[in-house]
Amino acid sequence: MTPDSGWLAILRQRLESRLRQAQVYVRANQYHLLARLRIWGGRLVFWGCGIVVGLAAVLFALLSDGAAERFAHAAALYPWMPFIVTPLAGAALLWATRTWFPGAQGSGIPQVIAEMKRPPSGPWRPLVSLRIAFGKIMLGVAAVGAGFSFGREGPTVQVGASLMAAAGRFMPATLRIHRQHLLVAGGAAGIAAAFNAPLAGIVFAIEELSRSVESRMSGVVITAIVLAGVIAQYFLGNDNYFGRVVVFGESSELMYTILVCAVVTGFAGGLFARMLLISVIGWHGRLARFRGAHPYWFVVFCGLLLASLGWVTGGVIWGSGFAETKSLLSGQADLPWYYGPAKFVATVVSYLTGLPGGIFAPSLSIGAGIGQDLVPLLAGQAFPTTIVVLCMVGFLAAATQAPITAFIIVMEMVDGYSLVIGLMATALIASAVSRMVSKPLYATLAEHMIRQQSPADSK
């Protein structure tokens, strides 16, 4: 017997001993190990769904941007084209929404909030599902490609919540993740991926979506949100949503600028939210009766209005407004003074149609347009880009009445960390002014949707 064979025998004996010990441990703890395996399997499904939400947001972004660019290019070549495409496409999309994708109308955020308050029993028309998610993306892209003033960020919230809710059926009960938490995680992951701002997604989950559930977010939920943001950054790059914007301003001079921007955008954003609420709840008059009796002809009418407004303004009101806002922030081009008011009107008209589409990106572009109009008034007080950024956060905070989410979204999008105090102050003041003009937009719409689900209200 050689020394080598002796060492091999000892090694074999030790390995066999370890294997027997492992087999004994597994047999003694098989139920515990199986439970742990199921928990980790559920976590992998949860995190994998976060990656899927990020991919869906990227697909939505690329399709929307491409559709908007093609429409703008075609309208520049054939100025008569919007007068045909926008009204006819609007009527067709409304028919498709009502026929095949009920529940996909509107922004998507109120739908998720309403779904989180879904009663345990009784009739309920689903507001989140894979069918709705598919329709939201396809119809949303088509609406933007037809010239309607919509964004994709709000719809991405409903898409993310739908995907995460669908993944819940594959998660073990031992993971103890309630359906409300799945909706919060999916919606917040959608915001994080849509804006390429993971921190904004977490804050949005706490401030806007978690009002009716625990505000405490577990590590597994936050990981899903971050994964969605990482996927968006992998495909769209590490640049901020609007690139890098240099913002400066002395604090003593900036306080006056902040106050003016906050009050103006607070009132304008509150009026914007009030008009959107009236269009859904409590709109009376001849035009309202016409919309109720002839919804498709009403969409044709709105499409003709948008085509006319786009023709008068040179096409700046079509789409989400991303390109126009980026040009204002970069100082590459000056838009006409009426851009902000015209975009305001175009977004309200688009919302009246009931087509799938969000208001986040249009709100930012309206705020940027207001900021451009305030630059001459505040000359010498702050740099033009500072005023534009402050008005963007002010209008978004006023329209949504979610000030923390608004200032973090804008801060991450423009890399405005040096102006964080100014952004926060503007958002808080604008939101307070908006509350004097309008009720909270998303929460009020969600309550209306819940009432519509009641059989007593449907009679």
Structure characterization notes:
By secondary structure, the chain is mainly alpha-helical. The chain folds into two domains: 44-55 and 94-236, no CATH class; 251-447, Orthogonal Bundle (Clc chloride channel), CATH 1.10.3080.10. It has helices at 3-28, 30-77, 81-100, 109-116, 130-145, 153-167, 179-195, 198-209, 219-236, 251-280, 286-293, 295-313, 322-330, 339-352, 360-374, 384-400, 403-414, 420-435, 441-453, 455-458. α2 packs antiparallel against α6 (153-167) and α14 (339-352) packs antiparallel against α15. The radius of gyration is 25 Å and the shape is globular. The chain starts with a helix and ends with a helix. Mean pLDDT is 83; it is low at 212-219. It is found in: Membrane.
What is the SS-derived class? mainly alpha
Number of domains: 2
The quaternary structure here is single chain
Structural Rg: 25 Å
The 3D shape can be described as globular
Question: Kindly state the mean pLDDT as a whole number?
Answer: 83
**Strand composition percent:** under 5%
In DSSP terms (H or I, runs of 4 or more residues), the helix count works out at 20
Low-pLDDT stretches are 212-219
For the sheet with most strands, the description reads: none
**Secondary-structure element string:** HHHHHHHHHHHHHHHHHHHH
- Estimate percent helicity: over 70%
Query: What CATH first level of the largest domain would be assigned?
Result: Mainly Alpha
Distance between the termini: 94 Å
Find the CATH superfamily of the largest domain. Clc chloride channel
**CATH 2nd-level architecture of the largest domain:** Orthogonal Bundle
Strand segment count:
0
Subcellular location: Membrane
Main location: membrane
Protein name: Chloride channel protein
Membrane topology: Multi-pass membrane protein
